[in-house]
């Protein structure tokens, strides 16, 4: 099963590129090696969250409305996620950033404990390779989501169109060199990929170097509440949920209600559910 919604635009892009080329290069790995994701700033500025007492963070998260399709809603979503992912130790915070659905929610959905895979312990083990917290996060992302999500997505979607994609930022010598640098070399005051921006400052125009980080995403929340609402309704139906052995149906109902009301962006959780339902049907499981 694969629930990264950016696989859809990756497939369409690969389809168009294949009309002109058989081999292409991608920038995969640059974020994990050079520090391009916003969550690295979250760790850098973690101390600021301590200004907000736990009960106040919980209150703010409950009242903030999330909507990726509006500027204010997106700012609200980012701030809410920042506050929600600040509790616990380093590994617990990182696990929250990596999880589409929290472990306790997965266990509640399934009705039993999931002890076969302990993400927090795995992150703790990976962290031992670096003393610097930023490099620790980079290495964990390099070892986990890059390998099991990003590269899988590009490989499946490109090869489905007969396109070969290569990733020069994952050259072994380059990766080993950059990981030998302190994390402060990679994360600036407000911008990531500090080394890349400075290295190519005389080769790339300022509008490229200073461009804001933008994920390769689709408006999945908007689609699920409009054109793809039938997929949402089907996956969230009691009949479907029982077939895939979901025990906590009220949690799924809550996700759906929050998305449709615009109170909280639960599109990632719901897309994961939809993807799993479609996978089980493709395999004849249900």
Spatial sequence of strands, sheet with the most strands: 1-2
User: Describe the biggest sheet?
Assistant: 2 strands, parallel
- How many separate helices? 19
Radius of gyration: 20 Å
Subunit arrangement of the protein: single chain
Mean pLDDT: 88
Cα shape: globular
Binned strand content: under 5%
Structural class category? mainly alpha
| Sequence of secondary-structure elements | HEHHHHHHHHHHEHHHHHHHH
- Report the span from N to C terminus: 14 Å
Helix content, binned percent = 55-70%
Q: Which consecutive residue ranges, at least 5 long each, have pLDDT under 50?
A: none
| Number of DSSP strand runs | 2
Explain what you see.
This protein is mainly alpha-helical and 286 residues long. The protein has 19 helices and two strands. It has helices at 7-17, 30-34, 39-44, 46-49, 54-63, 71-84, 90-98, 103-110, 119-127, 133-143, 145-159, 172-179, 194-199, 206-209, 220-225, 229-235, 238-243, 249-261, 267-282, and strands at 23-25, 164-166. Strands 1-2 form a two-stranded parallel sheet. Helix 1 crosses helix 11 and helix 5 (54-63) runs antiparallel to helix 6 (71-84). The chain is globular, with a radius of gyration of 20 Å.
């Amino acid at each position: 099963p694969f629930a990264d919604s950016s696989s859809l635009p990756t497939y369409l892009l690969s389809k168009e590129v294949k009309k002109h080329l058989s081999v292409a290069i991608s920038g995969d790995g640059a974020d994990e090696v050079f520090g391009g994701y916003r969550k690295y700033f979250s760790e850098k500025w973690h101390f600021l969250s301590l200004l907000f007492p736990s009960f106040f963070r919980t209150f703010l998260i409950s009242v903030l409305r999330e909507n990726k399709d509006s500027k204010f809603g997106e700012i609200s979503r980012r701030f809410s996620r920042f506050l929600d992912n600040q509790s616990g130790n380093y590994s617990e915070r990182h696990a929250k950033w990596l999880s589409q659905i929290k472990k306790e929610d997965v266990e509640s959905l399934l009705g039993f404990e999931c002890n076969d895979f302990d993400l927090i312990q795995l992150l703790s083990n990976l962290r031992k390779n670096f003393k610097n917290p930023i490099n620790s996060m980079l290495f964990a992302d390099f070892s986990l989501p890059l390998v099991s999500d990003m590269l899988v997505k590009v490989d499946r979607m490109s090869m489905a169109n007969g396109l070969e994609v290569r990733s020069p930022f994952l050259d072994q010598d380059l990766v080993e060199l950059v990981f030998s640098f302190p994390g402060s070399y990679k994360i600036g005051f407000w911008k990531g990929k500090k080394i890349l921006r400075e290295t190519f400052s005389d080769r790339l125009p300022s509008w490229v170097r200073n461009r804001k980080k933008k994920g390769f995403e689709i408006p999945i929340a908007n689609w699920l509440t409009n054109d793809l609402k039938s997929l949402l309704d089907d996956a969230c139906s009691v009949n479907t949920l029982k077939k895939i052995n979901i025990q906590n149906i009220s949690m799924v109902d809550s996700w759906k209600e929050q998305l449709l009301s615009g109170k909280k962006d639960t599109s990632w959780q719901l897309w994961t559910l939809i993807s799993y339902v479609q996978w089980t049907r493709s395999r004849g499981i249900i």
